[in-house]
Amino acid sequence: KKQIVVIGLGRFGSSIALNLAKLGQEVLAIDIDEVKVKEVAAQVTHAVQIDATDINALKSLGISNFDIGIVAIGEDVQANILTTLLLKELGIPYVVAKAINTLQGRVLVKIGANRVVYPEKEMGKKIAHSLVSSNFMDYIELAKDYRIEEMTTPASFHGKTLRELNLRNRWGITVIVVKREQTGDIEVSPGAETTVLPGDTMIVLGKNDDLNRWNNHTR
Amino acid sequence: KKQIVVIGLGRFGSSIALNLAKLGQEVLAIDIDEVKVKEVAAQVTHAVQIDATDINALKSLGISNFDIGIVAIGEDVQANILTTLLLKELGIPYVVAKAINTLQGRVLVKIGANRVVYPEKEMGKKIAHSLVSSNFMDYIELAKDYRIEEMTTPASFHGKTLRELNLRNRWGITVIVVKREQTGDIEVSPGAETTVLPGDTMIVLGKNDDLNRWNNHTR
Ligand SMILES: Nc1ncnc2c1ncn2[C@@H]1O[C@H](COP(=O)(O)OP(=O)(O)OP(=O)(O)O)[C@@H](O)[C@H]1O
Ligand SMILES: Nc1ncnc2c1ncn2[C@@H]1O[C@H](COP(=O)(O)OP(=O)(O)OP(=O)(O)O)[C@@H](O)[C@H]1O
């Protein structure tokens, strides 16, 4: 379980906060606007009204202990950049920041953002692609309880066959593709005798609960 | 090649317009703000400054002949809803509308939007999921030339088995999942005797070129 602070509860930030909470994570939700704070308060671990550019306010919340920080402030580019800088200076190892233009994005990278997201731009690209493919539907959304994930293979897998790993019986997970990093080959519906090698990634299918349990176990 | 009108050139709308143009589609980009229009003009088929809630302005642009309409107006919910209604009344068969809250989304569905998108909400969910999976990589990106797509099944498939359809030999496409709309069941690595039924969707894997060829064929 990760400790995640989400700053900026607009449509994007509140969606991150609420979805993380649904996924069982510890979420501290922050916004300068009390109304936004109240809207999520019942569904997250903690919700606090502060100005996130105030380093003392951040310190008093114990922000330095968090695993992940999300800066989802939008229009106020200056506050977004300053908050990102503060989170890195307070020692949060992984900080995701939203950018509303590429210039801001480059600044964020320079000051230490581990990942920069352009939510509207990326969704626009996805929609464009889905309109052009004749029967394309919205990514890989299976029946409500299932999803497909791609995962790197842990060291404990290497040198073992899929039969030995027995993921279906032990974890309820079905391996549908093995990608060989070393050769770039792709094995679809790999046989039970397939040996997992270092660098391989697997695409797996499973129920959300099973995948969550698997993810918590391998953390 | 489709004729697509994109109304509202904010970050989301302009991304759709520019990506569609890159994908070789005919794009008419519209915004009430001349500055936004100028920004995309060189990269799309046509870019025009009008108020999209003005039905006469829309008519004069020959909007009724378009295949797809995208309404990417954001804050002005009323303009977004009115524009969506006008596009349907002018006879555009497929209209995608952005919504900034679920109430607006329900209204859009009632007035005929074929698809409602919540870009910030959906990206938030995706980011949340990517942060929680221990080894999660950004969706299903296979070796450069491959991808996984979900597709609806055309009428010509219904009542046939996968063996009869022979997609792998005919199109180079591997079916990895069949989703039964009627029961909600999911069949992973379906056998050759699996019969495709109306409403089924398939998740397929293939080389980009093969999938593009398939998509062009079924258009
Ligand atoms: N200094 C700050 N400290 C904390 N929160 C802030 C600060 N500045 C702005 N915010 C909050 O960030 C949130 C998101 O910012 P804003 O609404 O500008 O972004 P947006 O891009 O329009 O959002 P979205 O598209 O996600 O709805 C707002 O709720 C706002 O109150
Ligand atoms: N009546 C209208 N006719 C045409 N364009 C309009 C109309 N009303 C608003 N727009 C345009 O729609 C665009 C997007 O709207 P807005 O900026 O409110 O949305 P947004 O959700 O903040 O955008 P994004 O998140 O995509 O950047 C703006 O460029 C605006 O000028």
List keywords for this structure.
binds adenosine-5'-triphosphate, 219 residues, six-stranded parallel sheet, 23% strand, four-stranded antiparallel sheet, elongated, 37% helix, alpha/beta, homodimer, 10 strands, 9 helices
Detailed description of the structure:
The structure is a homodimer of 219-residue chains. Chain A has 219 residues and is α/β, with parallel strands linked by helices. Chain A contains nine helices and ten strands. Chain A has helices at 11-22, 34-41, 55-60, 77-89, 102-110, 119-132, 162-165, 167-171, 208-217; strands at 3-7, 26-31, 46-49, 68-71, 94-98, 115-117, 146-152, 174-179, 186-188, 201-207. In chain A, the strands form two sheets. A six-stranded parallel sheet of chain A has the order 3-2-1-4-5-6, sandwiched between helices. In chain A, strand 8 (174-179) and strand 9 form a beta hairpin. The longest helix of chain A has 14 residues, at 119-132. Chain A is elongated. The model of chain A is unreliable at 134-143 (pLDDT under 50). The structure holds adenosine-5'-triphosphate (2 copies). The site of one adenosine-5'-triphosphate has 21 residues of chain B, from helix 1 and strand 2.
